[in-house]
Amino acid sequence: MFPKPKPELIPNTYAYESEPMVKATGFREYDARWLFGKEINLMGIQALGMGLGTLIGEMGQKQEIVTAHDFRSYSASIKYALVSGLLASGCKVHDIGLAVTPMAYFAQFELDVPCVAMVTASHNDNGWTGVKMGANRPLTFGPDEMNRLKEIVLNADFKLKPAGSYHFVENFPARYIADLTKRPKLKRKLKVVVACGNGTAGAFSPQVMEAIGCEVIRLDTELDHTFPKYNPNPEDMEMLHAIRDAVLEHKADVGLGFDGDGDRCGVVDNTGEEIFADKVGVMLARDMSAIHKNAQFVVDVKSTGLFVTDPVLQKQGAHTTYWKTGHSYMKRRTHELKALAGFEKSGHFFFNAPIGRGYDDGLVSAIAICDMLDHAAGKTMADLKDALPKTWSSPTMSPHCSDETKYGIVTQVVKHFEDLKAKDAKVAGQPIRDLVTVNGVRVTCEDGSWGLVRASSNKPELVVVVESPVSEQRMRDMFEAMDSVLRTHPEVGEYNQKI
User: Fold this and answer.
1) Which of 87, 110, 434, 462 counts the most CB atoms within 10 A of its CB?
2) Closest C-alpha among 140, 98, 116, 186 to residue 350
3) CA 1 and chain centroid, separation
4) Cα–Cα dist 30/260, whole Å
5) Are strands 32-35 and 128-134 parallel, antiparallel or unpaired?
6) Which string of DSSP letters, residue by residue, matches 12-23?
């Protein structure tokens, strides 16, 4: 028997050390995230491992799993608590040690193991922990699996078996690096800033980029789980500005910033200007669709409208589908449609064969960017960016909103704009051309300017993105229109960043 997890326990008490604590809101749409110590304890992580092993067996999958952990002060202890639960449920565990998330995904293929449990809080601030899970490579769990896992764990409905075993895989990073670099070197000599925010990617990214032929300028690649400079998140302006300064100082061809668990890559061009990931996706789609005719792409609802309107993509026969934001949703849709690639505005890119194996890997993205520059002899990163039709885009902006209330707020916001459209009312001074409600609400005005509000899938936040093909002022108008609706809800707090 194992105790049923409690939603809340007081630290530094007998109960906290003797009972599992698991807050229900930690089970997100496609992975799990908690504030360690406040929302989950080590016994709660152990319960999660038991639940995951039970679910894998329930799904009819072989109970064999890869596990790894990111570089935070507490991640190793969390992984071992998770492993103890997986062992109790009868799983054969292959532990590859300290790793970026895509290294764990690669291990599923390299070790021929069906399942994965990567202990990571990704780009979240210190204090957070979590697990990215899957039982059918290259896919990760979606809402159905996460809801069932939540039921099993919170009800302590475990099916425990004595057959578990543990295997540590020595020197696994060398196999991952070799797989990424067994390719011709770049013809063009590129000087590249590699920025890691002192996160896990710093242990692997520089040598991969050097091995493909880049001259690497290292920026905050030393491992330091206190993240002394900035949080390793290439969507945060602080990290992007640090990359900008390094690019300009060293006259680099491009700056590449990797997030905390290495599955995303942010880009700064040779002039020091950041290029948001959806625009990078358009640039890569142009490059790839010139080589692969009638290429199909999947992009998330936060992404630029250029995927549909760009004349180069149209001429090259590229076709793009918009889909739900979230690495698991995007990965699954890219896989289902057998698309050449999927691009998410957050920087999760999914490359199918011949470029990748379908999962998100920041280093595969970085190599694809270098290949694009290699194909564009004589052109800079800024040249390729400036060749795109001009739009004015915001970064991803996230006002605080509790996990308990955020989905209800978004439902009300969706209804607000649906009612406006039904009345032929205007938004930001213009009629609504269309609404996309597959994931929150994306409001597009008559001139093509649009704004999005959705609930974050992994943090107590909302997500706001705006873009205009007309002017910076129209972009700001759209932000005011979206924000004015959010300000009618007192539960919505301050933004992490604003335009």
Assistant:
1) 462
2) 140
3) 36
4) 18
5) antiparallel
6) SSHHHHHS-BB-
* Structural domains of the chain sorted by starting position, each given as residue range(s) with its CATH number in brackets: 14-171 (3.40.120.10), 183-387 (3.40.120.10), 392-496 (3.30.310.50)
What tens digit of pLDDT does each residue of 350-377 get?
A: 999 999 999 999 999 999 999 999 999 8
Confidence bin at 2 (pLDDT 50/70/90): very high
Phi, psi of 429 (to 5 degrees): 80, 5
Retrieve residue 232's tokens: 């390793």
Place of tokens 């609504």: 432
CA distance 404 to 406: 6
Query: What sign results for the dihedral spanned by CA atoms 491, 482, 30, 266?
Result: negative
Q: What is the pTM of this model?
A: 0.89
Q: Label residue 267 exposed, middle or buried (CB < 10 Å: 0-12, 13-18, 19+).
A: buried
How many whole angstroms from its chain centre is CA 227? 19
Q: Residue 195, Cβ neighbours under 10 Å: how many?
A: 32
CB atoms within 10 A of CB 468: 26
